[in-house]
Amino acid sequence: MVRMRKQFRDLASPEEAREAIASLHLTPDAETVALEDARGRVLAERIDAELDVPGFDRASMDGYAVRARDTFGADEADPVELDLAGAVHAGSEPDVAVDPGTAVEISTGAVMPPGADAVVIVERTDERDGSLVVYSAVAPGDSVMPAGTDIAAGARALGPGTRLTPREIGLLSALGVDEVPVRGKPTVGIVSTGDELVRPGDELRPEAGEIYDVNSYTIAAGVEEAGGVPKLYPHAGDDYGELERLLRRAADECDLVLSSGSTSASAVDVIYRVVEERGELLLHGVSVKPGKPMLVGTLGEGSAYVGLPGYPVSALTIFRTFVAPAIRDAAGLPEPRTATVEGTMATRERYAEGRTRLMPVGLVADGDGETLVYPVDKGSGATTSLVEADGVVEVAADVEYLAEGESVTVHLFSPDVRAPELLGVGEDDPALSRLLDRVSSPRYLPFGSREGLRRLRDDIADVAVVAGDRGDAVEEIDAVELGSWTREWGLVVPDGNPDGVSGLADLVDDDLRFVNRDSNSGLRTDLGNAVAALADERGTTRHELVEAIEGFDRGTKAFESPARAVAAGRADAGLGLRATADSLGLDFVSLGKQRVAVLANPARTEKPGVASLRGVLAASGDLLADLAGFERT
């Protein structure tokens, strides 16, 4: 028998996707929790007061309990004198009554003694030889809180759907409630697939293409933030029998099952089979970028199912846009008021793909404190985009571009997201990492000197960190230098320098495996200049020498990567810093000193984060003292 798969030839619109997810039944049964565990939960039913709060008439001020009529006519010129009959303190049952012509000392919160109907505050009295002199008349009820003033027995105290904050917890405590009926939190099972995934804490083998499982933990945190209870399952690898078993188990145990990375043809076959046997597939594919291959359906009567994309940014974007609202609704939680912010585009962004775009963006404040929004586009597979991106801007399918200065709404990945106090872009550098440790809430993007200058020019970055001689590129940008240092750069080689590398010429003349930095790096630029100088010495071309160096045209992003390749035996030499070689126990062949400068956007020099970095740079000597090859300039 041939199983016919249901085809979804037309991608669903975002609105249809929201409707499909909204149609899923995620709401769990109500439960009862102890009052001390109730903060943040949502009441499942109305709670009425079963007693008066307060349960007695009590004094609201320190003073003397009296019969109001005994004070009528009293003033400064003609005070009234009453006999003192005793005292009543908070937490004690009165053992004295107020008879005509008498008064009883009373503390704030104490029970009003029999016979008294008012309190004269202590400031309007004077004690004299066992008597009380009253200088001001009071009316019945003055400075007295009658029983039931807060809430009376039988009154509606809190209604269903109320989120329990410390204020409501206080009221429930006053009513003597020790257990609270609350909305259940939906249990969300999370299943990640792919043979390449390894759980954090387990041994990773990069040479085998393994990567740490990002989605399980990212989505679990999102589920918890939305009011659900995440439940992580072992990842199924590409064992589709195991995937089917896990999906069935999760469906039996959870209100909602989320999978990620399960959109390959073979994995989808498994999901179709489970869905067709136990539930219904509502849609396959949504007209959005990123996240086109989303699946929505049910896995039987007890569980809903959503298949998320495999790339971390895509998975988080689709989760936050479509799934998190459904979890919040099931848990009875409202959309956070701070879940969106308004800003203006820092740069123009073109887009014309005919489907809704969920554009990851970052936030930065300009010199006037206004929020600027810039696109984050390193590809949905780039995990670091999760840190750089603060949220998404939804761009309609018929919008071809967003103009610089155009107002946009940013849907934040988390209500707690705030723009960083300092946004820096530029060279990757160990000294800079130490300096940033002393700045509050910085965000630094180590994209290289070239990209730092571009983002400074485009008014995105607060500061750019630039290494080497950038000459005309720096002069074209209006910037203020905050400080600088030098670092020793050269070739990192194995401990003991087994190949006897003494300089750049050895890379050209010997058969050595070399690992370079990427073209955005200032180290790569200075290396290129050194190769050009060597070519001039030899009377040849730079191109000919570059062709002779194995690996010159292939670069790595991070400053330690070439050195780590050498340490692992994958290279004979790598472009790097003396400090890196020392820290990894490798040898080093110096090619010179390189200046690293921190350049600031002149319109933002008064931003607290920029001012803080300037101060740190001015006192950076101690931070650089033990870093090999670094000197403050």
From TrEMBL:
One of its GO terms (cellular component) is cytoplasm. SMART domains: MoCF_biosynth. GO terms for molecular function: molybdopterin molybdotransferase activity. Keywords: Molybdenum cofactor biosynthesis. It comes from the Archaea. PROSITE patterns: MOCF_BIOSYNTHESIS_2. InterPro entries: MoaB/Mog-like_dom_sf, MoaB/Mog_dom, MoCF_biosynth_CS, MoeA-like, MoeA_C_domain_IV, MoeA_C_domain_IV_sf, MoeA_linker/N, MoeA_linker/N_sf. Pathway: Cofactor biosynthesis; molybdopterin biosynthesis. Signal peptide: none annotated. GO terms for biological process: Mo-molybdopterin cofactor biosynthetic process. Residues 189-329 form the MoaB/Mog domain. Pfam families: MoCF_biosynth, MoeA_C, MoeA_N, PBP_like. This is Molybdopterin biosynthesis protein MoeA/LysR substrate binding-domain-containing protein. It comes from Haloferax gibbonsii (strain ATCC 33959 / DSM 4427 / JCM 8863 / NBRC 102184 / NCIMB 2188 / Ma 2.38). The lineage of its organism: Archaea, Methanobacteriati, Methanobacteriota, Stenosarchaea group, Halobacteria.
